[in-house]
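INTERNAL AUDIT FORM
Audit reference: QA-55
Scope: verify that the stored structure record matches its stored sequence.
Auditor: D.O.
Record contents follow.
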Amino acid sequence: MNEAQTAAIKISGIIDRFIYHNQENGYAVCVVTIEQKQSITAAGILPHTTTGQEVELFGYWVMHKKFGRQFSISQCIQKTPSSVTGLKKYLGSGLIKGIGKSYAEKLVDHFGEKILQVIEEHPRRLQEVAGIGEKRAELITQSFLEHKEVAHIMVFLQGYGISPAYAAKIYKQYRGRTIDILKENPYRLADEVWGIGFKLADEIALKLGFQKDTPKRICAGIIYVLQLQAQSGHSYTTREELVAKSTELLESTTDTVTASLEDLLIQERIKQIIFHDNHYCVLMTHYNAERCVAQKLRDLLHYQHVTPADSANIYSKLLIQNPGEIALNEDQQRGIMTIFQQKVTVITGGPGTGKTTLIRKLLSILEEEKISYKLAAPTGRAAKRITEQTGRFATTLHRLLEIDPQTFSFVHNESNALKLRMLIVDESSMIDIFLANSLLKALPMHASVVFLGDIDQLPSVGPGNFLADCLASKTIARIRLTHIFRQAQNSLITLNAHRIITGQPPIKSSPETRNDFIFINEADPENLFNQITHCYKTYFKTYGITQENSVILTPMNRGIAGNFTLNHNLQEFLNGAPGKSVSQGNTTFKVQDRVMQIRNNYEKLVFNGDCGTIEDIDHQEETVTVIFGDKQIPYGFDELHELILAYSMTIHKSQGSEYDAVIIPLFMQHYMLLARNLLYTAITRAKKLCIIIGQPKAVHCALAQARKTQRVTFLTHYIDGTL
């Protein structure tokens, strides 16, 4: 109960130490030293504070059932530390980069109570202290000034209920302009600050005094609805649905939303088209991307094609079976002949149908004929896999196009085309409409392009349905590989993948096949993790599989059988030994953890879906070093929101990769997402062993759902000129 809650009490003191501090929401429990060296326990929101910080706390006394009497903080005002003791604690807290406890002692001993003034006004004097050179002095000053500016902005943002984690993201984007921008148009946050969507921006705007019917809010809400549709893969939404969903979201009227929609159409932020008497709305960026992709494909198809090699000569090479090569069937031969005769070719086929064999033969012919080519895939894992399968170097599409670190745009484009005669892209089902646009812009008109992929897999994470739309086109040459080769038939993984995509249940055994597919019947999701650990201890040992070459693939993130819970439990199981660690939100990262990048970072040249391992955590420099392949990439503690644990991942995130062993939890709690292509994609990630743990009913539920809602795109019509 409160001892006094009629008026806030003010207490001044120095934060001595933190008992608990949640960096995500700023909630902390700390010990504060007040007058005459008395100590009290205080709890509440303390954004961007550290030990040694002088503070004025406003609040009231409460009696905690477990911890006794403590001060409940309603407001915290930070003050600049002035005492020698406070300065040493403040500077030694790690808040200011370049200063640890040792340098804090030296700096305060040398400069006394004027140390902060020296840092801010005379930074070169810091070099008077032994061990501090020019670079460290610059780092200290820059970090101190940034912290001072952040503290001011944090106080402003705290007043509007913005958590420290989001406040840090906002500050990083706008720096000293933060307050002015928020007062002018807080809805910019939704478009310009990664991780902050419309709902949070709206919450901030309403607290800042913006009215619910202000046009800025209505327009931002309409854009947000289209963005939500794009997150589900749809490029377009019917006008009727857009107005209805926006009206519900904004708690507005149809007339108000319609008026703002008209404004957005006039501003050309949204495009409206008519198809079969229906009006469809699309974000202008998505519309332009689809139109540009279609136009470039049409331009390529109509460009005078000079066959890079003699057709008769190519066909004769197809009939020659070199040592170590597998003989091509008719579909594979037809595929290669089509590639040499057409400017754009799409080749699709499931596991064991010979896509890799076709690529190997194609590359050997290109090399014999001295035709320049590039081999690429959407992700690093997919590129590595095709390199291993073909023995030729493959790169990611982002690295092929190259990133300009100054502009964060691609170096290769319509003004600086790639230098090649043929581009071969594997795992093309992963390509969204924006990446397709960037790739085709960089393709010279004299070149040919081949898109290979499995049309039955999940479509791209991003908007659009590029491979399927190209395959549906009547204009683009396409080849379907359907024959399962004998050596692939020896695998239950391959057989069951083809059964699943046609709606047939998987089988547990088959004559003359490897026993590489296991189903563990488990009715209770609570027992899932025990089953997983059993698999690690038994099946993995039997099959000679290491945990580094295995993964858990789950349909969704949340729930006891979801990605978040599984990663937490797997971290304890596989990397539970004490060691260096750092927390970000609800996740604790440790050295040797497997992690995944969840957004494209053009500055670091690390991209969404890239997986790595944490090599080191440095609390003094506030950095985490992650190994991605052969690269060491440093992350500041304030950048850790770009990483997640990757012992387990969603099936969507696994596209383009292969693992020796895959474990797939499948329960009815996943029913909203269950579909054939989801289960098919998961199973085809396994090379040596696939284990499904779950309920037979969930498997049948997936089989019954041929495909989730078809994505709304018009790329096929644009390519074929029917729209």
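Auditor finding: record pair retrieved intact. The two ends are 69 Å apart (CA to CA).
Action required: none
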